[in-house]
Amino acid sequence: MELILIVALVIVVAVVVTKVLSSRQREESEIQENLPYQAKDSILTDAEKSFYNNLKQCVGDRGVIFPKVGLKDVIFVSKGAGNEYMKWLNKINKKHVDFLICEPVTMKPLGGIELDDFSHTQKNKYERDVFVEQVYKSANLELIRFSAKSGYTVSEIEEQLALIFDSPSNTENEEQTDDQTNVDEIKCPKCNIPMVQRKATKGKNAGKEFYGCPNYPDCTEIKNFD
User: Fold this and answer.
1) pTM listed for this prediction
2) At a CB cut-off of 8 Å and minimum separation 6, what does 31 contact?
C-alpha cells in the first residue's frame, strides 16, 4: 500500500513539474516573439561615420577610439564628495561622449570629442554642454568640439588632436592592498583628498610602502615615502 502511495505521489509531482515547465516555456516563447527590438544598421549617424573614418586616420596607433561612451564610465566621483556623492553621480549618469580616445595599452582616457549639431544652440543643450566642459576640466581631460557636418578633412581634425596627445602621460601604477592608514598631511594631487598608506604586494617594489589615493583603482596617483 505504501509503495502504491509513493508511486502515485511521484507521478503527481512529475505531472505538476511538467506542467509548470511547459507553462514557463510557453510564456518565454510568447515574450520572445513579442519583443519589439531590432539591431540598428549603425550606432553612428552619417555625419558621425564620416568623422570617425577621418579620425581613425589621424589617431593611427597612438590611441583607441570608442564611440558613444557613458560619461560615468570615463569619469568617477571622488570619495571627497562625501554625502553629495549620489548628487554628482546622477548629474553625469545619463550623459555620454560622442568619441573617447584612450591610450592603447592602459586604456587610460586621453580625451573626448563632441560633434555639435544645430540642436546644441538650444538653451537646455547649451547648459548641458557647459556642464560637461566643466566636468572634463575638473577631471583634467581635454574635450574637443567639432561642428557636425556631412564631411571632414584629416587636416582640420589633426590640428585639434594635438590638444589630446600633448597631455601629460600616466603615473606608473603600483599593486595595492586594502590596508589603509589616513595621512592627513599628504593629499592626492589629482583628487585633492588625504592619501592613505599602502604597501606594494607584487612586482619589483613588493614590500615597499607608499601613499596612495583612496579613490584607487579609479585614481592611481601615488607618492613614495621620503
Assistant:
1) 0.65
2) none
CA–CA separation, 75 and 71 (whole Å): 6
Domain boundaries, the chain: 46-165, 182-224
Q: Are 143 and 163 in contact (CB under 8 A)?
A: no
Give all strands (DSSP E) within the chain, no chain letters.
64-70, 96-102, 109-116, 142-147, 182-187, 194-199, 209-212, 222-224
Preceding peptide of 36 cis, ω within 30°: no
Are 208 and 183 in contact, with CB atoms under 8 Å apart?
Answer: no
pLDDT digits (tens, 9 = 90+) for 197-211: 877 777 777 777 888
Query: Residue 40: helix, strand or coil by DSSP?
Result: coil
The string of pLDDT tens digits covering residues 65-87 is 999 999 999 999 988 888 999 99
Q: What is the full DSSP assignment across 187-202?
A: E-TTT-SEEEEEE--S
Q: What are phi and psi of 223, to 5 degrees?
A: -135, 130
Question: Cell 590638444 belongs to which residue?
Answer: 163
